[in-house]
Write a structure and sequence with these properties.
The complex is a heterodimer of chains A (171) and B (372).
Chain A lengths: L3 E8 L5 H10 L12 E12 L2 E12 L7 H6 L5 E7 L7 H13 L5 E6 L9 H11 L3 E3 L8 H15 L2
Parallel strand pairs in A: 1-3, 1-4, 4-5, 5-6
Antiparallel strand pairs in A: 2-3
Chain B lengths: L10 H7 L2 E6 L5 E5 L11 H4 L7 H6 L4 E7 L7 E7 L6 E7 L1 H64 L8 H33 L7 E4 H13 L8 E5 L6 E4 L1 H19 L6 E8 L5 E7 L6 H7 L18 H11 L3 E6 L5 E7 L9
Parallel strand pairs in B: 7-9
Antiparallel strand pairs in B: 1-2, 1-5, 3-4, 4-5, 6-8, 9-10, 10-12, 11-12
Helix pairs in contact in B: 4-5, 5-9, 6-7, 7-9
The chains are: A alpha/beta (171), B alpha+beta (372).
């Protein structure tokens, strides 16, 4: 049976984690905010371009209740994850602190597992500072994507980059 | 390890009352026994297919401590939210999973979370609006202080010079001294006029009253003219200032006077940046892209600046900390930025300390009359 990989999506509440996942899995978007309680699971099979050609990958994407700081419950949710997408909201005065808290927690729980970063709501805001983006990429060795769940910008790239890392490392 | 030992209580009754099932699984995670019928879990199937939250947790289930995953909801309309927990039977060592329906408490808690988050988001928005208002107020105050300062300096020169020249004993001044005073007053007057013009442009661009008079313009011709004017700037002596043409000069639909203003501002900044160097170079070019858009580029080999200094330099009256204070008021880049945006374009600057500076003014393909 084909292996199924667990990807967790982390970040503060209201940054658009659910919207990004629903854009990726279901290709839909709603601008009505509905808080996620606990965790929602999305099963998804995708095809990803790898060095050896197209590869199929089965994923369970964990849409985890958002918080500015990861709680003990969040730590329990990430157990066994193959990778994490850490999401921030570019329209906020400080989109990054909650992202760094989530990324630090994930790195501490599962050292060396791939991470990618989604700077979301790009359709509503200016581009992020290149300086911060560079710092984030260097600190966590993970790519940073500007995303918009509303128009789909960067969403596939973000998830596919994680899929590629998972397959390349055979996690 | 926690226990799963129902003892004397009939587990089926307990499980039914709780809307729960207990599932015994083998080490390969195949379902071997199901107690309770609250969920459709089939014997001999992979338990991870029934409970996808267990994917990735295989090692923990087999060898780790008991797990408890609260409030798990599968994205379908049929499965209620559940809490999943594991336990080892003390007597047999068998691995059991308990799946409990938490629909009711989940919805109550979700409403609480929703209200809390909505309130926190509204608070954050209010805070941001208040901070923006305070920042705008500080900017306005700082802007007025800067304007006053920039106006006072040349005015002092004019008033001082006029005061000396208007006194009866000024006739005793050496003719060279008279010319010197008059020249300083003229230069200060020109500076004042430039400053007032810049302030009017800035103000009109902020209020949306700056109107473009657009026509078809030849970019190579504009580049040539502005490079010629740049060579006459006071700091240009000794600076290599060159224009690089592209073979097929694109005609651009734009306000020619404003494009000239953009270029002269950038050339003037670049010349000031390299004026202290013995090998100062400024290169002006037009670059055409495959998508039909084009860039005006002004590049210098001056000291460059950090990201932080660049952000300051782009603000009105911004004087980068690391830079030698220039003769200008610090309005040039702010005006170029606004004029580029008015044309639907953008001012992009790439620079690093010690690496010079490249300013790109980008115009999209719709402004050009030809096709690539």
């Amino acid at each position: 049976m084909m292996k199924t990989y667990k990807i967790v999506v982390l970040g503060d509440f209201g940054v658009g984690k659910t919207s990004l996942i629903r854009r990726y899995v279901l290709d839909e978007f709603s601008d009505q905010y509905r808080a996620t309680m606990g965790v929602h699971l999305y099963k998804h099979t995708d095809r990803i371009a790898t060095e050896g050609g197209q590869s199929e990958i089965r994923l369970v994407v964990w849409d985890i209740e958002g918080a500015p700081l990861p709680s003990g419950q969040t730590q329990r949710y990430v157990v066994g994850a193959s990778a994490a997408l850490v999401v921030g909201d570019l329209t906020r005065a400080d989109p990054y602190s909650a992202m760094w808290s989530a990324a630090d927690m994930f790195e501490e729980q599962l050292p060396g597992r791939p991470m990618a970063f989604a700077l979301n709501k790009r359709d509503l805001s200016d581009a992020p500072s290149p300086d911060v983006v560079k710092r984030m990429e260097r600190r966590y060795d993970g790519p940073v994507f500007e995303t918009s769940a509303m128009n789909g910008e960067g969403v596939l790239h973000a998830f596919h980059s994680l899929g590629k890392s998972i397959l390349a490392r055979n996690l | 390890m926690s226990d799963f030992s129902p003892g004397g209580i009939n587990p089926e009754i307990v499980l039914t009352a709780m809307r729960a099932v207990a599932i015994r699984v083998s080490e390969d995670l195949t379902v071997r026994e199901v107690s309770g019928d609250a969920f459709d879990v089939q014997i001999e199937t992979d338990v991870r297919e029934a409970i996808p939250a267990l994917y990735g947790m295989e090692d923990v289930l087999r060898d780790g401590p008991p797990i408890s995953i609260p409030f798990v909801q599968l994205n379908d309309d049929t499965t209620p939210p559940v809490t999943v927990s594991s336990a080892r039977d003390k007597l047999t060592g068998a691995l059991w999973l308990v799946l409990r329906d938490v629909s009711e408490e989940s919805e109550v808690q979700r409403q609480l979370v929703q209200n809390h988050n909505a309130l926190a988001l509204a608070e954050a928005e209010l805070r941001a609006a208040r901070d923006a208002a305070l920042a705008a107020d500080r900017t306005k105050t700082s802007f007025l202080a800067n304007v006053s300062h920039e106006l006072r300096t040349p005015l002092h020169v004019i008033i001082g010079g006029a005061s000396i020249l208007s006194k009866p004993r000024s006739t005793a001044l050496d003719p060279d001294e008279v010319v010197g005073y008059a020249s300083d007053m003229h230069e200060s007057g020109v500076l004042l006029l430039q400053l007032v013009d810049d302030l009017i442009d800035l103000s009109r661009s902020e209020t949306g009253d700056l109107t473009l008079y657009e026509e078809w313009c030849d970019l190579n011709e504009i580049v040539d003219k502005m490079v010629g004017l740049g060579r006459e700037l006071p700091d240009a002596a000794g600076v290599i200032l060159e224009a690089k043409h592209i073979m097929k000069a694109p005609r651009v639909f734009a306000d020619g006077r404003r494009i000239k203003q953009i270029l002269l501002n950038l050339i003037s900044n670049a010349i000031k940046a390299v004026a202290q160097r013995s090998d100062g170079e400024v290169r002006v070019s037009v670059d055409r892209h495959d998508d039909g858009s084009a860039c005006l580029i002004v590049q210098d080999n001056g000291p460059g600046m950090s990201e932080e200094d660049l952000a300051i330099a782009r603000e009105p009256f911004g004087q980068p900390r690391a830079a030698v204070r220039s003769k200008g008021a610090g309005l040039g880049l702010a005006i170029v930025d606004r004029l580029a945006k008015l044309h639907g374009g953008a001012l992009i600057i790439t620079t690093e300390p010690g690496q010079g500076l490249r300013a790109f003014v980008h115009f999209d393909a719709t402004r050009f009359g030809d096709k690539i």
